[in-house]
Amino acid sequence: MTMIEMIQPGWTVVDSNGEELGKVVRVDAEGIHVRKGGLIGGEVVVPKSACTDAEEGRVELSVTRKDIESRRK
């Protein structure tokens, strides 16, 4: 099982600065779908290639929150 395959809905996603982006909604061919926390609604799709580490309950990204904000759905 690859790192991406082990990611589950509800896991916390943090950016490269350690700032929480939100929670995983689902993972599919498009990427990691994240319901953003701390902002007014919304969901972003994070490319799988931006995931640098995943362990139970937490996904770390190689990009910043600002980079992800530009991908807003």
Keywords, separated by commas or semicolons:
42% strand, 6-stranded mixed β-sheet, mainly beta, globular, single chain
Number of helices: 2
Q: Please tally the β strands and state the result.
A: 6
Give helix and strand order, one letter per element, not per position. HEEEEEEH
What class would the helix/strand composition place it in? mainly beta
Separation of the first and last Cα atoms: 28 Å
Indicate the low-confidence ranges by residue numbers. Answer: none
- The percentage of residues in β strands lies in 35-45%
Shape: globular
Strand arrangement, major sheet: 4-3-2-1-6-5
Characterize the largest beta sheet: strand count, sense, and whether it forms a barrel: 6 strands, mixed
Mean pLDDT rating: 87
What radius of gyration results from the CA coordinates?
11 Å
Proportion of residues in helical segments: 10-25%
Detailed description of the structure:
The chain has 73 residues and is mostly beta strands. It has a domain of 44 residues. It is built from 2 helices and 6 strands; from the N terminus they run H-E-E-E-E-E-E-H. A 6-stranded mixed beta sheet has the order 4-3-2-1-6-5. The chain is globular, with a radius of gyration of 11 Å. The mean pLDDT is 87.
